[in-house]
Amino acid sequence: MYLTIKETAEYLSVPEAAVKSLIQQKKIRALFDGEQYLIYKEQFATHLKQVEKYKELVDEYLSEPIPESIDVKDED
Known about the structure:
Layout: E1 2-3, H1 5-12, H2 16-24, E2 30-32, E3 37-40, H3 45-63
Antiparallel strand pairs: 1-3, 2-3
Helix pairs in contact: 1-2
GO molecular function: DNA binding
Pfam families: HTH_17
Domain Helix-turn-helix: 2-50
């Protein structure tokens, strides 16, 4: 399935200008049909999976309780 720049920006939750910039930098593959750029949606599948996995790892880390401190003595 192919998306326009506007649809891609909504799908990725980024501004349209960012999508255009990434196309110009060749970080997003796109086809130009004479009128507009068309972007293949599946090229983002791996990226989105990695983002979800990273979010899970961060949530797991943040939910881990803080260990009690080892016998810390005040030397005053």
